[in-house]
Design brief:
Radius of gyration of chain B: 13 Å
Helix content of chain B: under 10%
Largest interface: A-B, 24 and 26 residues
Shape of chain A: globular
Number of helices of chain B: 0
Oligomer: heterodimer
Structural class of chain A: mainly beta
Largest sheet of chain B: 7 strands, mixed
Chain lengths: 112, 114
């Protein structure tokens, strides 16, 4: 099975940098994904790490270390619009169907 | 492309009523899934499908049925609604296989069971 842990809440101020951690226990996975969800909205894809290391997409970066069973999402130059929930997810390697398992989400609040 | 569409957006049911939540995608994705989202619980997988005629259960399948007669459509049926099924329901789709990086989510259906 798959189990993912992430903090329930994180707060920061505009312009700051924040890191949202995700630790996991897994029987095998293809990659670690991150999704963003604003209140009342649908989750939207942010980033995916298939290999160890850092992936950068504009102000957002994501990191994966398989040896440490750990990943994180790094948000730089925070803006008010970044206030949202962020979910990490792993794509199951244990079946051919590639199911996604989600963490419970981290609520990020950005203050002015 | 419309992406993933869901209907209805909101629904109120009485205990014991049945209904079908509709989901459709126009991206020719093989993989489709249904999640429910409750406060503090994240996204929990109800049922999923890897293609027409093939479905399987997720973490919380009890009280729900699915079928996949076409690639485009993946309806979710509540057979006898219960207050515990009050939730936000999201449908998602993606290509299948290890190369697939992302799931595309519909806008959600907010269901209240009285």
């Amino acid at each position: 099975g798959q189990s993912l842990e992430q903090p329930s809440e994180v707060t920061a101020v505009e312009g700051a940098i924040v890191q949202i951690n995700c630790t996991y226990q897994t029987s095998g996975f293809y990659g670690l994904s991150w999704y963003q969800q604003h209140d009342g909205g649908a989750p939207t894809f942010l980033s995916y790490n298939a290999l160890d290391g850092l992936e950068e997409t504009g102000r957002f970066s994501s990191f994966l270390s398989r040896s440490d069973s750990y990943g994180y999402l790094l948000l730089q130059e925070l803006q008010m619009k970044d206030s949202a929930s962020y979910f990490c997810a792993v794509k199951d390697r244990g079946s051919t169907l590639g199911r996604l398992y989600f963490g419970r989400g981290t609520q990020l609040t950005v203050w002015p | 492309n419309a992406g993933v569409t869901q209907t209805p957006k909101f629904q109120v049911l009485k205990t014991g009523q049945s209904m079908t939540l509709q989901c459709a995608q126009d991206m020719n994705h093989e993989y489709m899934s249904w999640y429910r989202q409750d406060p503090g619980m994240g996204l929990r997988l109800i049922h999923y499908s890897v293609g027409a005629g093939i479905t399987d259960q997720g973490e919380v399948p009890n009280g729900y049925n699915v079928s996949r007669s076409t690639t485009e459509d993946f309806p979710l049926r509540l057979l006898s609604a219960a207050p515990s099924q009050t939730s936000v329901y999201f449908c998602a789709s993606s290509t299948s296989g290890r190369a697939s990086k992302t799931q595309y989510f519909g806008p959600g259906t907010r269901l209240l069971v009285l």
